Amino acid sequence: MLFHELTEFFERLERSSGRLKMYSVIADLFRQATASEIAIIAYLCEGGLLPPWAGLETGIGEQMAIQAISAAASQSVAQVRQRYRKTGDLGTVVEQILPAVSHKAPTVAGVYKEMLGIARTAGGGSVTRKITLLAGLLQRCSPPEALYVLRLITGNCVSEWVL
Fold first, then answer.
1. CATH fold of 3-161, please?
2. Residue 122 CB-density burial (10 A; 0-12 exposed, 13-18 middle, 19+ buried)
3. Mean pLDDT of all residues belonging to the chain
4. Ranges of the chain whose pLDDT falls below 50
5. Given this model, what pLDDT does residue 155 score?
6. Residue 98 CA to chain centroid, in angstroms?
């Protein structure tokens, strides 16, 4: 499944009101997913990358995300912060300022693998490496895809549609 297809389901979930409608959207999503994608999608819908008992956190906070957005969109950190103060959502900020560039559409598995790599980056210089890896991932995404990558990796997905 392409990542943009997953983001379309996330958008549908955000527009849905009522648990039954949300469950219907999630059921549609899982029907379209391959067997190897189901666990990945379930973790992402829960707002994580692995089961909670695995103890893996991305380590991407607000300030690191701002720096990654700045690098990905060729905007100053001050410009990104200013937009963030106005919108209150870094996902919306990256969607607004990331240039739309045509790339090979990323897959759910590919984006997930990159997010896992970012989360597992540790040691000396890991902050800089995480920012660089996240900026690179954002640059390979369309603006709507980048919105959800940012929300997912910072743990700011919409709680109403978390399983």
1. DNA ligase i, domain 1 (1.10.3260)
2. exposed
3. 91
4. 159-161, 163
5. 82
6. 14
